[in-house]
Design brief:
The complex is a heterotetramer of chains A (195), B (399), C (630) and D (83). Chain A has six helices and no strands. By secondary structure, chain A is mostly helical. Chain B is α+β, with helices and mostly antiparallel strands and 399 residues long. Chain B contains ten helices and 16 strands. In chain B, a hairpin with a 4-residue loop joins strand 15 and strand 16. Chain B is elongated and about 100 Å long. With 83 residues, chain D is mostly helical. In chain D, helix 1 packs antiparallel against helix 2. The chains are: A mainly alpha (195), B alpha+beta (399), C mainly alpha (630), D mainly alpha (83). Chains in contact: A-C, A-D, B-C, C-D. The structure holds heme-A (HEA) (2 copies), dinuclear copper ion (CUA) and copper (II) ion.
Chain lengths: 195, 399, 630, 83
């Protein structure tokens, strides 16, 4: 299975192909989150006499939004270090990003338990259903992102990060930033605009 | 390995030999394509028939729609004929003929033509678009005013409930009936609709287009009928939105009456049923105890009219709808059909119905949840044949 | 290059079942899609025949209401999501790389994964017939009917099955987009791509952007059924589902037809011996259809209560789709005009497509006239409309593609005589079946009704339709026999049997694993034709002298607008992998688990582990022995 | 540079959070918050995701989704009388 042509030819850059696919995927995700945000907007006042937007704790959510926002910084720093072939930097910033992401998730879990205590569950009202679905799916995206970051971190331990693989730091980065910008929208639309 | 066995062709070296390669090339022209299609369309144009047709309207609303339809249908037929003619002409005139080996001129396109055949359809569509928009506002206008007969409609799996909200007896009980709608001729009728469970759609083609009855929503449909219908031939209709098991058996009958006949019918409907005191019907009234778990009947009690059975309402968008668990049976004997217009109302059918309702009409009574108002059909009560006979006597007596 | 050297250069084609399971070759995956879809077509067709039997007489008793409702739902669902869409995917998989001069799609293993997920989802959907009942809420699953009977798993099968099919399609579409935008051969700029591949791109975009919306709707349906949420029931609004569904459902119908239009745009020029009339207009009208297709979803909801303003807006927008569609029709006729039309089988089906699709399109315009649609909606007139576009258009188009490209797949022709029988019976049967439905619909017959009473004047046309449907059935039996027989015993076709125009005809039939011995350098639309023909002063095609091999000189630079130069000169094909099928299998276990909640949580867990294993192995496995893109 | 951008984003977030508490801003609260969100969104996309410097193809692919989704759901919500 060898070809005489290969040895003489440098392997060409295939990263653009993957990046194109990732951007297409993110475009698709816009529709996904857009649908859920629209659902939330439709039902924002449909609380069936249960709790509504007044139970939001803006200062708390602002803090966790800030955490997620900063994880975008650490992510871009990780990518930067990766491009510069700075293995240590990559490792540190990857881990930092995963940590910030986990902090955000912890905040979300705390928030959800608070709300359930205050009587807002998935089945309380259309408002509850659409709130939990939207923020829940976002949380799931963050969780998957954390997993991928940890996988990157694992690969970086023995320097395999630079081998050509389906997933790489840049793609994970794009995904991570996307999850962040979705939260920017959610934070404004779901929290700030409703109180 | 396929590679070795297949002839490998390098571009530019390909043998131009498809004539040899294909045995028995057909030269028949597919003129039939056009012909069959044409026939189909012509047939569909001139066959407005049957009592449930949309092409023979019996009222002004149906007519507005039909006029529009005819206009557009003619335009579409013209487009159809032109396009098919061009297609047939092209394949006949420009078919490859035997013995002619010349190649055609390699035309790549023509911008002027492109513009032309973009603009012409736009013009045609504009000609369709304006009357369409006007038609929407005409047909959708909600009938208003004192002369309008107001009927509230609740769709149920799988029957219709009608409440004439402005027609009440002296005790304030409104006229409630099921499945057979009576309206006076030449009168605007405003149906205000919702659904108790899933989406249904009210459709009586000769009178008007359809309109969905959606849970949690209120919708309106205007009906106007030209002429009274013969007693045995009401306008048939059909629930047009798929609503589960017995969607097909969720039919509608609209009886149109002269104003006088209609008033008589109303007066009749507003009289409570009498409680039978002797004979089979009286025995049937005993057995009827089971039935009032869902059905309700207005009977003449000692102190005037009283309701037996459950009377429920639901409120949607500020409108209160009667939403019974099962059809009101007060004047059941006076109905031509039952089971939502599916079965002729006679003793034989009724006996079958009472013996096993789901055998006649597919339903899912095993999933009923009466306290929560979820009814998916009438259960089989394993009634004895005596009970059945008695109940029939009772029900048919309530005319 | 000498003829035989390609044999030494090329990676060998492996054989045996295992090689099919682990294949990442876009051509094999294309064939797998095709065969699977064909089998599914027979299943869905058989379901349709049962429906027809039931409707032959008034008050038919062949099927129970329950059976009928499952059958029409599964018929519609299967035909759309498991037959026509995958048939499109089959052609796309096989021909996108060949059309743009690439060795494979961008992500061969993801491609295999898409197929396996599709296959398993199909099996899952069909298995519902014996595992608690098939979906019975109609193919558009209107809530709250679809969320109502949570005692049954039927609509859970719908929610999960469609979701998984959607995921498979999204992945495949992203793959195709990346392929076309980054892997074109040098010189293959966007305005030289064959129309079929263009339409594949449009379709991929439609799917990428519409499926996630459907996905959200399906999740909501699933949650309403299983976790007590109130998206459509309770205090929710049933119309939300309709919006989410048709935001997907309408683009979906163009997903079904555009590849067929692409095929027809390939076939008609070849058999008219002229280039496609107005190539850029055909391409742009396809793109326009794609865009406009996103703006008309509510024309399925005219009777649901949107309000007159919205109805008017959507009515007018819907009509306007006739404009770009008409442009295509006229350009096809323009292509035949002045040509030398040869009535080979692919061409006959293509002409059938044009003729029948116009009928279906015009009845679509009749629907867009909103007040008329108040009558036609949910009647057999709609059933007639969409079978004319889906069968008269779609199926005729795809069958044309099958006759056209069968020689490329197998190196052999489909049998002429059988093909003739197939065509004429199908044409006859088709019109007998579906033309009467226009009449039935206008005369008030509602769709999805398992029985109808006597006295409404519907028996005769229903009988005609039933007879017609069996004629279609026979025609497809002939087709199936033809496929089986000709695969091994058909007349040998050579590499370029039709005197084709596009690159796939420049390589052997069937193509070698690596497609192109050397990546071609493209200079024209219909590049291959231009290597064979010049034009004389009158503009007539003139066959060039035999040896003109120079035009396919190997080339290392990237093409005009080609991004990133995604083609390579080496012939390293990605190595086979079984991780895609493992991952897909894990997902399907999870899927079954979700259907059978709460007991199914165990399966969800197990499936998730298997999936993780699949993905993990996938991402750790080197793409080829010595690196290759995945 | 990345730190600077992050600082900017942090400041914008602080403003956002403050807006609902400033009564004087009530009349313009909704548009203001939306504009601020768009600024943040755009900044992350342009700089952290490098879309500003990367291939035009990516921009096109992504913008289809971001821009496309808005009119679709505005129409949906309008027909459902959500505003
Ligand atoms: C391949 C699939 C396909 C295609 C291509 C189309 C194409 C079109 N469809 Fe169809 N449609 C369906 C599949 C498809 N449809 C399905 C499956 C349903 C039912 C779903 C369900 O309820 O289950 C449906 C239902 C449906 C409805 C809803 C009906 C109802 O339920 O009430 C409407 C309403 O407007 C509609 C309209 C149109 C229009 C205007 C086109 C246009 O794109 C057609 C354009 C083409 C032409 C017009 C012909 C060629 C043009 C010319 C020759 C130019 C000159 C023409 C003029 C000037 C008019 N379709
Ligand atoms: C591409 C899509 C497609 C295709 C090709 C078809 C093909 C056919 N459809 Fe279609 N149909 C739909 C898509 C499609 N359908 C959709 C979306 C619906 C709506 C569903 C819903 O309401 O939810 C629908 C609904 C629908 C109905 C309405 C049901 C109802 O509303 O109550 C009917 C009724 O006649 C019907 C009939 C047929 C027939 C007879 C064929 C035939 O053309 C089929 C021909 C194929 C075969 C016959 C199989 C091949 C041969 C064999 C299996 C061998 C055996 C043969 C013999 C013994 C003779 N279909
Ligand atoms: Cu009620 Cu169909
Ligand atoms: Cu549509």
């Amino acid at each position: 299975m060898t070809s005489p042509a290969v040895e003489t030819h440098e392997h060409h850059d295939i990263r653009p192909i993957r990046k194109a696919a990732m951007w297409v995927f993110l475009g698709s995700e816009c529709m996904f989150f857009g649908s859920m945000i629209a659902t939330f907007l439709l039902y924002r006042n449909n609380t069936a006499d249960g709790p509504g937007a007044e139970i939001f704790d803006i200062p708390f959510t602002s803090a966790s939004s800030f955490v997620l926002l900063m994880s975008s910084l650490t992510m871009v720093l990780a990518h930067n270090a990766f491009e510069k072939r700075d293995a240590r930097g990559t490792r540190i910033w990857l881990l930092a990003t995963a940590l910030l992401g986990t902090t955000f998730l912890a905040g979300q879990i705390y928030e959800f338990t608070e709300f359930v205590h205050k009587g807002l569950t998935l089945s309380t009202s259309s408002f509850g259903s659409s709130f939990y679905m939207l923020t829940g799916f976002h949380g799931a995206h963050v969780a998957i992102g954390v997993l991928m970051l940890l996988a990157m971190f694992y690969l970086s331990l023995d320097g395999r990060l630079y081998e050509d693989r389906g997933l790489n730091v840049e793609l994970v980065g794009l995904y991570w930033h996307f999850v962040d910008i979705v939260w920017i929208v959610i934070f404004t639309v779901v929290y700030l605009l409703q109180v | 390995m396929p590679l070795a066995s297949t002839p490998v062709a390098i571009a530019g070296k390909v043998k131009h030999d498809q004539k040899k390669a294909i045995p028995g090339v057909a030269r028949r022209s597919p003129r039939l394509v056009g012909l069959v299609a044409l026939l189909a369309l012509v047939l569909s144009a001139c066959s407005g028939s049957g009592p449930q047709t949309a092409l023979n309207p019996e009222g002004p609303i149906g007519r507005t729609i039909d006029d529009l339809w005819e206009l557009v249908f003619i335009l579409a037929t013209v487009v159809f004929v032109i396009v098919q003619a061009a297609l047939i002409y092209a394949i006949v005139r420009f078919r490859a003929r035997k013995g002619d080996d010349s190649e055609p001129v390699q035309v790549h396109g023509n911008t002027r033509l492109e513009i032309l055949w973009t603009i012409i359809p736009v013009v045609i569509l504009a000609a369709i678009g304006f009357p369409t928009v006007r038609g929407i506002f005409d047909v959708r206008a909600i009938a208003e005013g004192a002369d309008v007969l107001q009927v509230q409609v609740t769709g149920h799996q799988w029957w219709w409930e009608f409440e004439y909200v402005d027609l009440a007896d002296e005790t304030g009980r409104t006229l409630v009936t099921a499945n057979e709608l009576y309206i006076p001729e030449d009168t605007e009728v405003n149906l205000t609709m919702t659904s108790a469970d899933v989406i249904h759609s009210f459709w009586v083609p000769v009178l008007a287009g359809k309109r969905d009855a959606v849970p949690n929503r209120v919708s309106n449909l205007t009906l106007i009928a030209d002429n009274p219908t013969p007693p045995d031939a009401p306008h048939p209709g059909q629930c047009a939105e798929y609503c589960g098991l017995a969607h097909a058996d969720m039919r509608i009958k609209v009886h149109v009456r002269t104003q006088a006949d209609f008033d008589a019918w109303v007066a009749d409907q507003l009289t409570p049923a009498t409680i039978p005191t002797e004979g089979a019907a009286a025995a049937g009234y005993e057995a009827f105890n089971t039935c009032v778990a869902c059905h309700n009947v207005t009977v003449m009690g000692e102190n005037g009219p009283e309701d037996i059975g459950v009377v429920r309402t639901i409120e949607v968008d500020g409108v209160t709808f009667t939403s019974s668990l099962a059809p009101n049976l007060t004047h059941f004997g006076g109905r031509d059909t039952f089971g939502s217009g599916t079965f002729e109302n006679n003793a034989e059918h009724l006996a079958q119905w009472l013996a096993d309702p789901s055998e006649l009409k597919p339903m899912r009574p095993e999933l009923n949840d009466i306290p929560n108002g979820r009814i998916l059909g009438m259960p089989n009560f394993n009634l004895s044949s005596d009970d059945i006979a008695n109940l029939i006597a009772l029900l048919e007596g309530w005319e | 290059m000498v003829l035989d050297s390609s044999k030494d250069l090329a990676p060998a084609e492996p054989t045996g079942i295992w090689s099919w399971i682990t294949t990442v070759d876009h051509k094999r995956i294309g064939l797998l899609y095709g065969v699977t879809a064909l089998i599914a077509f027979f299943v869905a067709g058989l379901e349709a025949l049962l429906l027809r039997l039931q409707l032959t007489t008034a008050n038919g008793t062949v099927l129970s209401a329950d059976a009928y409702n499952q059958l029409f739902t599964m018929h519609g669902l299967t035909m759309l999501l498991v037959v026509v869409m995958p048939v499109g995917a089959a052609f796309m998989n096989y021909f996108i790389p060949l059309h743009i001069g690439a060795r494979d799609v961008a992500f061969p293993r993801a491609n295999a994964f898409s197929y396996w997920l599709f296959l398993f989802s199909t099996i899952m959907l069909l298995s519902s017939f014996v595992l608690g009942g098939a979906p019975d809420g109609g193919w558009f699953g209107y809530a709250p009917l679809s969320t109502q009977l949570d005692e049954f798993v039927r609509m859970d099968y719908y929610a999960i099955g469609a979701q998984l099919l959607g995921i498979a399609s999204i992945m495949a579409s992203a793959n195709f987009i990346a392929t076309v935008f980054t892997m074109r051969a040098p010189g293959m700029n966007l305005m030289r791509i064959p129309v079929f591949t263009w339409m594949a791109v449009v379709v991929s975009f439609l799917l990428i952007f519409s499926l996630p919306i459907f996905g959200v709707g399906l999740f909501q349906m699933f949650f309403d059924r299983n976790f007590g949420t109130q998206f459509f029931g309770g205090g929710g609004d049933p119309l939300l589902w309709q919006h989410l569904f048709w935001l997907f459902g309408h683009p979906e119908v163009y997903v079904l037809i555009l590849p067929a239009m692409g095929i027809v745009s390939e076939v008609i020029p070849v058999f008219s011996r002229k280039p496609l009339f107005g190539y850029p207009f055909v391409v742009f009208s396809g793109i326009a259809i794609g865009f406009m297709g996103f703006g008309v979803w509510a024309h399925h909801m005219y009777t649901a209560g949107l309000g007159p303003v919205a109805e008017a807006g959507f009515g007018v927008a819907t009509m306007m789709i006739a404009v770009p569609t008409g442009v295509k029709i006229f350009n096809w006729i323009g292509t035949m005009w002045g040509g030398k039309v040869r009535f080979e089988l692919p061409m006959m089906f293509a002409i059938g497509f044009v003729s029948l699709f116009v009928i279906g399109g015009l009845s679509g315009v009749l629907h867009s006239v909103v007040p008329s649609d108040y009558q036609q909606h949910d009647s057999y007139f709609v059933v007639a409309h969409f079978h004319y576009v889906l069968f008269g258009g779609g199926v005729f188009g795809y069958v044309a593609g099958a006759y056209y490209w069968f020689p490329k797949w197998t190196g052999r022709f489909l049998d002429q005589r059988l093909g003739q029988w197939h065509f004429w019976l199908m044409l006859l049967g088709f019109n007998l079946t579906f033309a009467p439905m226009h009449i039935l619909g206008l005369n008030g017959m509602a769709r999805r009704t398992y029985r109808y009473p006597e006295g409404l004047g519907w028996e005769f046309w229903n009988q005609v339709a039933t007879v017609g449907s069996f004629i279609i059935g026979i025609s497809f039996l002939i087709f199936a026999w033809n496929l089986i027989k000709s695969r091994k015993h058909g007349v040998a076709a050579g590499s370029d049997p039709w005197d084709g125009r596009t690159l796939e005809w420049s390589i052997p039939s069937p193509p070698p694993v690596h497609n192109f011995d050397e990546i071609p350098h493209v200079e024209h639309v219909d590049d291959f034709w231009h290597r064979k023909y010049a034009t004389d002063e009158e503009g007539r095609a003139v066959r060039m002298p035999d040896v003109t091999g120079g035009t396919i000189a190997p080339e290392t630079t990237t093409g005009g607008e080609s991004e990133g130069g995604g083609h390579e000169d080496d012939m390293h094909m990605p190595s086979p992998s079984y991780y895609p099928i493992v991952a897909a299998f894990g997902i399907i276990i999870t899927g079954y688990g979700f259907v059978y909640l709460p007991g199914g949580w165990v399966a969800v867990g197990v499936g998730a582990l298997v999936t993780l294993w699949g993905f993990f192995g996938w991402s750790l496995e080197p793409v080829t022995r010595d690196e290759h893109h995945d | 540079m990345y730190w600077g951008i992050a600082l900017f984003l942090g400041v914008v977030t602080a403003v956002e959070v403050a807006v609902p508490y400033i009564e004087a801003l009530d009349p313009v609260r909704v548009p203001l918050l939306i504009v601020l969100a768009i600024i943040k969104f755009g900044t992350v996309v342009a700089f952290f995701m490098h879309l500003r410097y990367d291939k035009k193809l990516y921009r096109t692919l992504f913008l289809f989704g971001v821009i496309g989704v808005i009119p679709l759901f505005v129409v949906v919500l309008l027909t459902m009388h959500a505003f």
